[in-house]
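User: Show me a protein chain along with its predicted structure.
Assistant: Here is one chain, sequence first, then structure tokens.
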Amino acid sequence: MLIKVGVRCITVKWASVLRVANCYCHLKTPSTPTKESSEVVPGLEFMSKYDDKALDRILTVLNSTCSSSLTRYKVSKGCSEQIKKYWTTKGPFTTVKQLLEIENFDKKYLEKLVCSIVEEPIDPTATLDKQLKKILQNVTVNALPKEKRSKIKTVTSIHIGLTHVSWAKMDIDGHLLVWDACEFPEWSKPFNTKLFHTVALEVWSKLPVSDAYVTEDVTSLKNFQNKIESKTLLRNIQRFQLAITLQLLTSTKLNQSDGNEGSSYTQIDNYYFIRPNIPPKLFQLIIGSETVAASSIVQTFIDNNVSESLSHILPVIIDPFVASLYNESKNLKKEGLSQALIIAVAFIDLTVMCNPVSLKSLTSSQYSIKTK
């Protein structure tokens, strides 16, 4: 700061000016709020070894997962339920010390939970045993590479039904970001190239940009060798062709997240195929030889009434307005949207997050899967 006195300029430090002002004018300089320190509470000195990045990670885990998802860390099921109850009634955690406000949650327990969150391996498959890794390899047709797993923040799933192509875009915290469908007329018996081309382009133009795309493995839809009704066979062949076309189109999807100015088309290899039996098995929709409608489980998401046996799976957060639009849809559209949603949840939970509880649930006698 320069103060001009006569013909001379005197350099004065701003801090000195403020000190003088405070002394004579009783002015107070605004202070920058400091982050709450763990040393305020005796017994939480261990928190001082964690930097801001680690603290942000802890709070993200506490605020973005349901109580049952916390069981992957060192916390009992009862305490995880208490954490969920606190989060629901009082809002997201802003400091780690708020956990001490939970009944029966002492400092020693807090240290165990915090350490298990911070020390969790970056690669979630590192702690999986051989059996779970083998199952993980058979969840999708083309495996998700380790180096890509940590980069995926959003996933768009695609379900090709008999009357609709439906899609759901979710982030890895379970927020449903986009949920839509494209209706098309029933395929005519003779192959209609123009109709096929129109449907494929319309769906492709509406698909949101994501870090990864996933759809059911449609190779099983061909059933060329099976003696089935000719009309059903034709539909399956057409669904198969549409799925492959969408894969090719999506591989050149407009990528707006590459950091470049303007738009650019880039070749991407982030399209995955999940085995069609995995989502219904994960959500326990298979009863005997029958498969229950996916809309039944989606309604439990909307009502926030997921059964205890499924509470470990990625929580799904649906905006009330979006839920109301879903409930107003016709049954065929609702089922298509539901199928797209459970595909997205299964892919994130099993292959991106590598939830060991979910993977292990696929090994039970009732919901076992065959590994090649």
